[in-house]
Amino acid sequence: MSTMNYKAVWNKYVAKGHERTIKAKKNVLLALFLKGIGIVIGFAYFPISLAYLSPDKFGIFLTLTSIIDWFAQLDVGIGNGLRNKFGEAVADGEDELAQGYVSTAYFIVGSVFSGFTLIFFVASWFLPWAQWLQADPALNQEIAILAMLMFGAFAIRFVSSLVFQLFYAFQQSGKVEIYSTISKVLFLVFILIIAYTTEESLILFGAAKTFTFAFIPMFVGFYYFSGRFKKYRPKLRLARMAHVRSLFTLGFQFFLIRMSMIVIHQTNNFLIAGFVNLEGVTHFQAAYKYLSIFLILFVILTNQLWGANIEAYKKGDMEWMKRTMRGVVKIWLFTILVAVLMVAFSPVFYHLWLQDKIQIPFMLSVAVALSVSITNWVNMFNIVINGTGKIWLQMVTWVSAAILNIPVSIFMATYLNLGTIGIVMGTVLCLLPLAVISPIQVNKLLKKTDRGIWAK
């Protein structure tokens, strides 16, 4: 195709429409391109990791990663509250207020993580890690050190990553993906070096992963707050209790939603390790890595369109929100078709990818595909709900689903003897109420007929 044809296609499908839409398309395309690179890296590092670590040790690393990720919620939703409140302040031209929100968020999150890091470091030496993870007792000290390294690096990454909320508020999710991709490339380089120069070591592997992902956002924060975001640079004297209340009121609801998501999605590794076996964790993660490609797509859409919906709702542009929602639904329908094909060809893919190092049941792929599809269905409606800030009903439904998830998953895994597949299907069943309620609320919001619980 000639350069002129490329330009014509770009002008017809990307550089056309509302300014907000054009910005969203450009950032989504950039993010998709970079996510594609990230997916390739992810597929590359999985077999390299299995070659370097045994399936059991790799399962330990994956399970610890899930546990550490739970602590991401310790900001009690301040990060998401910052995205909404900062976006609203900028839309109203109140830069000083926006800087106050940034300063307060950094102060609160930094304080929380400093305290919890100290507590975690002390407690880690006394926790029966090996017993909890059903691992060899001789590995307990190695697991404890790995857990401390992972948590320390995670704390640095989480505080530093607050700068990314500003990118999201400015509808520039593509830039976040640039730095995420840089982290993944560096990690791949490090594990290749480790795999070919050292003996099997959980600690070295964990350090390569966690510290790579910690220091990139820290560098980004220093760079942008010294340049483009200088007028929003966090300052201790600008941290205000009034801002804490403002961020916390909305942020706490986001916190409960995200905690519920953690219980529903991130406990799968822990439940499989505890009620099935560690090898099942590796099976699930392999199937999830293969079939979660469309979950990644909807994360990109959510991150980009969340900020856009804040601006559109603030300005009363319901028509733009309706058009965008229709477009996202069409994308979801397309992903369903491709997901069916991916499941059908999954045995061939696993054989080529993992060289028969592990055997993944076909029905596990089916269950994971169902889980990813229903998660995407819920998330695409939450794009609109989150942008409006009317998330009370969403919060209640997510919390209810989270309360049911663990007992339902355990029942299906043990009493119905479905093992890993049962734990994944437990997640699917618990998401069904959200899959019904979320589109109803969005329809009412866009028609301005939201009343009562639909308008909270």
Give your account of this protein's structure.
The model has no long low-confidence stretch (mean pLDDT 83). 82% of the residues lie in helices and 0% in strands. The chain is globular. The chain has helices at residues 3-13, 19-52, 55-70, 78-91, 95-124, 129-132, 140-160, 163-169, 173-197, 202-225, 241-275, 278-291, 293-314, 318-344, 346-354, 362-388, 392-415, 419-446. The relative contact order is 0.12. It has 456 residues and is mainly alpha-helical. The protein has one domain (15-455). The chain has 18 helices and no strands. The protein starts with a helix and ends in a 10-residue tail after the last helix.
The helix/strand class is mainly alpha
Q: What is the rounded distance between the termini?
A: 51 Å
| Tally of contiguous helical segments | 18
Spell the H/E element sequence. Answer: HHHHHHHHHHHHHHHHHH
Helix content: over 70%
Major β-sheet, in short?
none
Which value, in Å, is the CA radius of gyration? 22 Å
By DSSP, the count of extended strands is: 0
* Overall morphology: globular
Low-confidence stretches: none
> How much is the average pLDDT?
83
Beta-strand residue fraction: under 5%
How many structural domains in the coordinates? 1
Keywords:
single chain; 456 residues; mainly alpha; globular
Short description:
The protein has 456 residues and is mainly α.
